[in-house]
Amino acid sequence: MNTQNILLQVNDVSHARCLTLWQYASIASNTVGFAGAFPRSELVALDVADLVEHADGLRVIVRRSKTDQVGQGIEKAMPHGRFIRPVALLREWLEAAGITEGAVFRPVSRSGNVRSVGSNAEVGTEPRAPRLTTQTVADIIKRYTAAAGLDPALFGAHSLRAGFITTAAERGADLARIMDVSGHRDPRTVVGYIRRANAFKDHAGGGFL
């Protein structure tokens, strides 16, 4: 079962029930993380101002990434989609949480409320809404893969990014187009993912083993 199918299964089960705010946040972070092939540090750093509306989906501005240490920023296109529908699920979360500015992904308290203003702001600075931590993103992925009946030990925060690359490769996407989404600068890294995804496709021994 690939990452796309896992997300579809979990999202279908969740939407069959009345969603809590935490479920909205979890589903949105999973689907956006997958659709944008985001490292978790980029995912939790997203602000509402980084989401630019487009007729075909969203243009997502990544202010700084591991492959962009000088902070030039990159832009990722996120289509509406017909299956996972990342843009719609992201909008559902933002609307349910009442988020119109600041951090996109925020923690939800045990009482079911979105935490709005951080308590650890430095003296003399404007208080800001807290963000999900990178560890929380990893925990969400493990929780939802377990809900899909899979071994959570086999999945982690990198599974969304790796899952997009391998799923795109399985669907025959061009290397350059995959890199447009993942933001990788070195094609050798992406080729490694693709080789694993296509290990049995057109295998050299397929015709005689």
Automatic annotation (TrEMBL):
Give me any GO biological process, just one. DNA recombination
Q: Which Gene3D superfamilies match?
A: Intergrase catalytic core (1.10.443.10)
Q: What is the top-level taxon of the source organism? A: Bacteria
**Entries under SUPFAM superfamilies matching the protein:** DNA breaking-rejoining enzymes
Keyword annotations for this protein, in alphabetical order, are: DNA recombination
* Pfam families recorded: Phage_integrase
* Single Gene Ontology MF annotation: DNA binding
Whether DNA-binding counts among this entry's keywords is no
Q: List each copy of the Tyr recombinase domain by range.
A: 1-206
The record ties this protein, via InterPro entries, to:
DNA_brk_join_enz, Integrase-like_cat_sf, Integrase_catalytic, Phage_Integrase-like_Recomb
Q: What is this protein called?
A: Tyr recombinase domain-containing protein
Q: Which species does the entry assign this protein to?
A: Methylorubrum populi
